[in-house]
Amino acid sequence: MTKKKEKAVEDILKDKVEKDPLKEEPEVIEKEKEKTPEDIIMELEEKIKELKNTMLKDRADLVNTQKRLEKERIMERKYAAMSISKLLITPLDHFDLALKHEINNEENKNIMQGFKIINEQFVKALENEGVSEVDALGEEYDPNFHQAIMTEKVEGTEPNIVVEVLQKGYIFKDRLIRPAIVKISE
């Protein structure tokens, strides 16, 4: 080995011998022995206090999470039928269109009477689930519930009043499923 390398190895060994962990331990032990019972009690009380605070925070987080999950479950139950209600609105529109046609033939009148009964049951079933029709005809135009696609000048009618409903709108409980498509006065 070269002299530089030998000196470097000696320095490292010297440092290790000077920093002997066995010599350091008694100092640490002596420091711990210097603590009085009162100091230990205070440290333990502080630790207890910290743990209690942590426990209270964790308990509060748990309670908040449970409340949030319960709210979400309630909302899911409340709006569970909304998607099926959206799907049933189109057939309801078709029933309404079919019922608007005049029938001259007696046999077809009986069929239309059957359609009318089915339509009424259909509407009643949807109403029982929380679906209701958007009020439109004769009402003031409200962009939250109506979609105006035409305007018409109507004598004796104030501006922005719905004068014709082109397609019914529907609400499920407190949410709009589909706006009413309307014609409003100028």
Structure description:
The mean pLDDT is 85. The chain is built from 5 helices and 6 strands. With 186 residues, it is α+β, with helices and mostly antiparallel strands. Helix content is 61%, strand content 16%. The protein folds into 2 domains: 3-78, no CATH class; 82-185, Nucleotide Exchange Factor Grpe, Chain A, domain 2 (Roll), CATH 2.30.22. The chain has helices at 3-18, 21-33, 37-78, 82-100, 106-128; strands spanning 131-133, 146-152, 162-167, 170-172, 175-178, 180-185. Helix 4 (82-100) packs antiparallel against helix 5. It has a 3-stranded antiparallel beta sheet. It has a 3-stranded mixed beta sheet with strand order 2-6-3, with no helix packed on it.
